[in-house]
């Protein structure tokens, strides 16, 4: 890179950038008509993830429309179980399905061939870095071991992730073995994304909120810390955002314990607490995605509250969870304008 | 009542009782074969709630088996929308359904006839107080306005309660009107339960965890505080437990702000934070229900950790959420024995 560092990288280095850089989780998604059009050309959802041409196209769409400060690789956290041959498929209107894994199958699991399977995703990253505007950061990502494991054990998404919690109580050794394997494979996968041109990577622990205190330490903090350790040992400059959705007060030491550069905050995190967390390091978040659907005063009030509470420190503006298909693209334009029009 | 006060009432008055009294959320439920037998005799699920004879029977079943310190009225939080003529029905294997409510319908909503509709539930409370052992406390309950409203707006249970969050952003006035009506009706309903013999009542705010900071104040704290105010104005001795599941750090001032005697804690609340909360007043909780399914070391370790952290203050031992159908009744017996065998 020749010019000034990309804004999101500056924030990840601890700098306050004003107005704050902005991107939205799931910004390449069904709320955009151009996404739905490209999506219709792919066969299944995973075909879209594994087609560099189409994945590049959908990743770029929101950048063209809104000029976000970061593009995030279009992919899915479940490409890892797919690469582990767990027969992942996306059932229209029902969400993901895969073969539920048991103790015996965990013992037989290994990472052979995983990176080969994911080569098209890495190719997408490579092409993206070439096609993105110079000033736009490129983010890679993967799921955190706990969150990926909840799907692998239940074979699907589940309320409260009860099957994975139960499995962890019943078979703690097998469960830790699964998390270790996922941590190692995922770390390798992130390293390849970084080498292919990702400026930073985000680790999504979407279901961290259902873990009790000790389980949060063992299943959310420890594997993510291990991943970041592996990545940093090999790529000391790597920048990592860790997003433990619903983790509430467990976020207090989450950045320090995992070694992440920044932490993502979901919309339920009180802004007073977010401001405290920001004293320790950069934060990302945390507008309720429903405010983008609603628009109007609920959108501007939500944006302003975040800017007021967190705008004077290292902040990456984002939603508190992925944007939903019902969001009006015009509201997204208003959101970006509001953030960029922030008075210093 | 002639003898000593019931243990749970003592705890609700702020006393430390050792070993702590115990009951389990959803203790009258599908994990018990005798429940499934009685359930099969009723027509639909709501028929069971509205049949004093059968509802008394299932309420007493776990008391006979385990001698819990409290019986909780067998009913459902959705009897309120049912009484409001929202066409509530329980679809086997799919959960509750009702007619989704909109702005116009909220304007037409009124509490006429609600208490008449709920008379069979009150009759159940009356009979229970006669049939329960003298030392067993009787708990009444209802849903908190926010949680009940999430079902009324979506017409069903929903992930992240997105429809209700969106509705509240779009139509704040109508939404507050709905919460006010629910608060007033629910308070009257609780007063009738108390008059019929309930020693205490619990307000379930099962979906409080998806609310942002300001929404938590407006939609979780305020309506529950209003309910407790109405109840206390008319029944100054009333004892109230407020359970805001998933509320995380919002629990900090929840007891003081709502005026509840005790607060319920879900299993994700760290025990160190729970101990802090206990300094302000009695707490109830918070074993992960999956530990009861798993049994063995995961059960005893979980119980012991709670007793160690919270056993020396005012504590009502409970789960952090309802017991699940998969729980082994033998594990429940072990749980009760472990809590009662607590070394002081």
Brief account:
With 344 residues, chain A is α/β, with parallel strands linked by helices.
How many discrete structural domains of chain A?
A: 1
Low-confidence stretches of chain A: none
Structural class of chain A: alpha/beta
Helix run count of chain A: 17
Could you give the count of β-strands of chain A? Answer: 9
- N- and C-termini, Cα separation of chain A: 28 Å
The most extensive contact between chains is: A-B, 37 and 37 residues
Helix content of chain A: 40-55%
Just give the CATH class of chain A.
Alpha Beta
How would you describe the overall organization of this protein?
Two copies of one chain form a homodimer. The first copy, chain A, has 344 residues and is of the alpha/beta class. Chain A has one domain (7-340): TIM Barrel, CATH 3.20.20.210. Chain A is built from 17 helices and nine strands. Chain A has helices at 7-12, 33-41, 45-49, 52-66, 79-83, 103-108, 114-117, 119-131, 145-154, 162-170, 172-195, 213-234, 254-258, 271-280, 289-294, 296-310, 329-340; strands at residues 70-72, 89-91, 95-97, 137-143, 200-205, 240-244, 262-264, 283-287, 315-319. In chain A, the strands form two sheets. A seven-stranded parallel beta sheet of chain A has the order 1-4-5-6-7-8-9. Chain A has a two-stranded antiparallel ribbon with strand order 2-3. In chain A, helix 4 runs parallel beside helix 8 (119-131), helix 10 (162-170) crosses helix 11 and helix 16 packs parallel to helix 17 (329-340). The two termini of chain A are 28 Å apart. The mean pLDDT of chain A is 96. At the A-B interface, helix 10, helix 12, helix 14 and helix 15 of A face helix 10, helix 12, helix 14 and helix 15 of B.
